[in-house]
Amino acid sequence: MAFGTGASSARGGSPGFRFTIYATLSIIIMFLDQRGGYLEQIRYALNIAAYPVQLLVSSPSTAWRWVHESVATSDALRAENERLITRNRELELRSMRYEALAHENDQLRGLKDALPPVAERWLVAEVVDIQLNSLRQRVLVNRGTRNGVFKGQAVLDDKGLLGQTTHVGPWSAEVILITDPEHAVPVQIERTALRTIAVGTGDTASLALPYLPANADVKTGDVLITSGLGGVFPAGYPVGRVVEVHRDAVQPLAQVRANPFASMNIDREVMLVWFREGHPAAPVTAASGDAKGGNAGMQPQAVPPRPKPAPATATPGQPAGQSTKGAAAAGQAASAPSRGDAAAAPPAKTPQAKPAPTPVAEPKDAEEGPPIEEDMAPKPEPKAPPQAAAPQPATPKPSLTAAAPPPSTAALFAQASATPPPTARLP
Amino acid sequence: MNSQPRGAMLFTALIALILTVLPLPTYLALVRPMFLVLTVLYWSIASPRAGGIALGFFSGLMLDVFQSPVLGEHALALAVVTYVAVREHQKIRSKPAFQQSLIVFAVLVAYESILFAIDGWTHHPVTSPLRWTHTLTGAIFWAPVAAVLNATNDRRR
């Protein structure tokens, strides 16, 4: 055994020297990674290096599941088959009703053909059995850039919103769950269309809504859906249900807690979803491109958005764009274009009434008002993304009020008054 | 003098990394010691010339990939830990097991403090007191881990 620190000069200098080198190196790495994310390439390479370890660690449970599946008795399989058939029938019935409702809704809006669902395609990913930091709510899934996964992609399970991808390797991706304390998702209360932000609490079974004023119209049992702001999640996906509203006379803000619908810690399979760009329900800033890196929905808690001033009770006149967007999204993804762009293009009112296979090519000036282009050919895919069925009566709006606001200000207003935009999407 | 246990070192570090990311029930995961840190610490003390600070740095980078929102924080913390260990390896080596555990505890607390500070500076704070539990369990696990690693080390020589 070598003795003495003096002997270490044989290679690489003294410990102090080497320590200085490595410490500086790691500080530089941290700085680069934190400011501007210059290290995506390095992270990618390290992810490749980490992949064998991930495989190795998760292989026992994968093998166990495989064995379990292959020795499953035919009785069990039959029972499961039975269950799945029942479930399938149930979903078919529901989707029938969904199409009828979508059709009816489109008729009410004067639109002849249904929009395609906002979810363009999705990919089932398995959660890799590996423990990431146990104090952070992250999971690893077995899909990566090779499957087209990108950073900041929405991740759902069959009940609701689960999270988004943060780091993507070639064959795997890290997902931050919406219950992580660092994660905030822009949501909307389905009943009132009131928008706020739901932040994670670090507990897999609860979300906090810390920015609601004490007089906000929120009560236990309210359903939270994504509001479509923030540029990551599209509008209208179920997030959770309010379970506790605590109003303190001296506090200006209400303390509201919600339970997420998605089952964070028992999910084996999750869905990575690609959304149609330009769809009314698509994430708002996706088109404008300022969601750099895609993690716009995330934000450190240290920089909370301003507490909401007033509940966004949609007066029929102005924020038609936003309120309908929420309401439409609440019911179905394949909704008519929101009133916002009907207003944004006043002369286009009539063309919108009878859109041929390729409906209104919306004028581009409606910036974030959803332009509907390309893929509008009416191929109503029956496969709608998992939705909270129970489409609430989409607050009927007399169409004359929609034409009232001046063209593009409506869209601008919709954006400006979008009360809690996550800080990340500030220009 | 050809005792540069490179192979054993890398192998045990890999095992330790696997133990660190092995899925466990939550309550067990919270008290799980940082095996990789203990292993790196052991090699820095037992064979300071073989791995030393480079081993600490690259192990930390690997931990960062798995556990850290910002690259480099475990790398820095482990570089500090290994530096201290390499500098003081003779003193630490000559101590009885119990005192070694105390020293390891202090080192782990320093390690976690560095992580805590960096987490805060980079706006990824984890304020839960549970983040400190692994320092205690690490100190408890030090003796068995060191014994196992000693066995591999002895067999090789």
Strand order of the largest sheet of chain A: 1-12-3-4-5-2
Mean pLDDT of chain A: 68
The fraction of residues in strands of chain B falls at: under 5%
What is the helix tally of chain A?
A: 8
Could you tell me how far the N terminus lies from the C terminus of chain B, measured between alpha carbons in angstroms?
Answer: 10 Å
User: What is the domain total for the residues of chain B?
Assistant: 1
Secondary-structure-based class of chain B equals mainly alpha
Q: Helix- and strand-based class of chain A? A: alpha+beta
Please give the oligomerization state of what you see: heterodimer
Shape, principal axes of CA atoms of chain A? globular
Unreliable segments of 5+ consecutive residues of chain A: 1-10, 286-427
Biggest sheet descriptor of chain B: none
Helix segment tally of chain B: 8
Give a structural overview.
The complex is a heterodimer of chains A (427) and B (157). Chain A has 427 residues and is α+β, with helices and mostly antiparallel strands. Chain A has 2 domains: 52 residues; 271 residues, no CATH class. Helices cover 29% and strands 18% of the residues of chain A. Chain A is built from 8 helices and 12 strands. In chain A, strands 1-12-3-4-5-2 form a 6-stranded antiparallel beta sheet. In chain A, strands 6-7-8-11-10-9 form a 6-stranded antiparallel barrel. In chain A, a hairpin with a 6-residue loop joins strand 7 and strand 8. The N terminus and C terminus of chain A are likely disordered. Chain B has one domain. Helix content of chain B is 76%, strand content 0%.
